[in-house]
Design a protein that fits this description.
Layout: H1 2-24, H2 27-52, H3 55-70, H4 92-98, E1 106-109, E2 113-116, H5 117-127, H6 138-155, H7 167-185, H8 187-199, H9 207-222
Antiparallel strand pairs: 1-2
Helix pairs in contact: 1-6, 2-3, 2-4, 4-5, 8-9
Length: about 240
Amino acid sequence: MVFVFNDTLDQWVLRPAAQGYRSVTPDVAERGIGNFFANLSEFNSAVNSLLQGKMDAFLASGGRFAINSTLGIAGLFDVATPMGMESRETDLGETLAIWGVPRGPYLMLPFLGPRTLRSGIGSVGDIYLSPEAYIDSTHGRNGLYGLRVVDERAELLDADALLSGDRYIFLRDAYLQRRSARMRCCRAIAISFCETRICSGDRRVSKATQKPLRKCSQNLMTIGLTKTSKTTRCKKR
């Protein structure tokens, strides 16, 4: 069973590695490493925000990445947040949802852990939307991947005490609830992206483009991303 494999891997490898990492790494260094990887994720969020049609989020994530990569010394310091630039985390799984891809069944994937079919496909795609994927040195690239995994596991050490009862059911429900909450946050922009652009007078939105946008709107209702079953009617100009 995949869950047993992942749980055993975590118990004997990841958790001890995270505990050792936390014990030998000064708090300021651990915080800097966390900021560094969070900054790399901003690049991914910027690309996905653009694909989702969320220009404000694209500018926010892109701006955070640019500022923290320069003034924040390669992202080791988060100087964007004190400047009022909030993080707009998103991923390819959410992008696929906005474009009408059904959620699919719940899966427990080796190494990756809990996913839906849609978010699992998105996770693979996100690898190639991250700056680490384009490091020429194989050792350097894999080293960053490994450090990211250990750092993220170290952040979850305090949450281990919250696990109770059936671990599989607990992790499944927690993951699905988290994804559902993030999908609800996408509802407003999904309606805006799929419906408003159809009704806009932008000449760049051709009839050929309107067709997939309408299909997107229908798919959003099918997968439950929107509550209404009514389509937006365009006002006559």
